Amino acid sequence: MGQKDLGKTTTGINPAMSGLLCYLGGFVTGIIFYVVEKENKFVRFHAVQSIVVFGGLFVINLALGFILPWVLSGIVSILMGLLSFVLWIVLMVKAYQGEMFKLPVAGEVAEKHA
Asked: Of 41, 46, 59, 97, whose CB neighbour count within 10 A is largest?
């Protein structure tokens, strides 16, 4: 079964692979693909969703590290790490399958800015 026609990209990389790569390095690769990819809405959507999801999780984890007591922040950090890992895998797989898999809130933001 072939992938959907997702159009062309500025980079020349297959759009499904570009979507996967938006998530590979978290919000950092999301930023890179958002800046580099000017045309393809599919890739831009996944780039913005990566920035919002993994940038948001990074900021929340950092803030909770300062707010919560040492032991509690460690437990929360582990749980957020597991959540992040599961989201990371799911989002990469969905992007590679050519889906514009939309998470609540982050997906709405991504649609507006793609």
From this structure: 46
Report the candidate in 31, 55, 54 with the shortest Cα–Cα distance to residue 43: 31
- Which residue shows structure tokens 């979507």? 19
Q: How far, in Å, CA of 30 to CA of 34, rounded?
A: 6
Among 99, 102, 101, 92, residue whose Cα is nearest residue 24: 92
In whole angstroms, give the CA distance from residue 15 to residue 6.
Answer: 6
At residue 2, does pLDDT exceed 60? no
Domain boundaries, the chain: 15-113
At 58, which amino acid appears? F
Residues 60, 25, 103, 49, CA torsion sign: positive
DSSP states along 70-90? HHHHHHHHHHHHHHHHHHHHH
